Amino acid sequence: MTIQIGQPIPSASLSVLKDGVQAITTAQIFGGRKVLLFSVPGAFTPTCSERHLPGYIEQHDAFKQRGIDVACLAVNDAFVMDAWSKSQGVPDGLMMLADGNGEFTRALGLEMDATKYGMGLRGKRFALYAEDGVVKQLAVEAPGEFKVSSAEAMLAAIA
Predict the structure, then answer these.
(1) Any idea which residues carry the catalytic annotation?
(2) In order of start, what are the domains of the chain with their CATH numbers?
(3) Which residues of the chain have pLDDT under 70?
C-alpha cells in the first residue's frame, strides 16, 4: 500500500558515498527536521538528468531559505548516485540517497516494475515533504509524466 499523508516514514537504511559507502537511516534523514524527498526512476536517465534533478539544484536555496533539507532518492547504488551527483553539479547539502535493493521504495509502496525496459525494480517518480518523519505532502507522477513532483510544484504545494 502506498504511504499516505499523515503517516510516518518507514524505518529503513539507505546508502551514501562519503569516505566509502555509508549507511544512513531514515531516522537520521527525517528525524527532527523538514525534508523534501524526491525520487527518480534512475540516475543518468533523460528526464531525471535533464529536468527533475536540475530543478531541485536550481531551487535548492529556496528550500534552504524555508528550512527544508532536500534529498534525491533512486534505486541505484551509492557509486552511481555519487557519479551522477558530480556530473550534475549537485550542491553540498542536497543528499543523494541510494536505495540499492529498493527496500525503502517498496516500504513506501512506490516501486514500479521496469523490467520491460531492462531496468528491473525502480522507484516511481514522486516527491514527498515530511516534518519530523511524518508525511505532510505527497505527489506521485502518473506513468510517463513529470508535473507534480518538480521542485517548482513542491515549493508551491508547501508554501
Answers:
(1) 48
(2) 13-157 (3.40.30.10)
(3) none
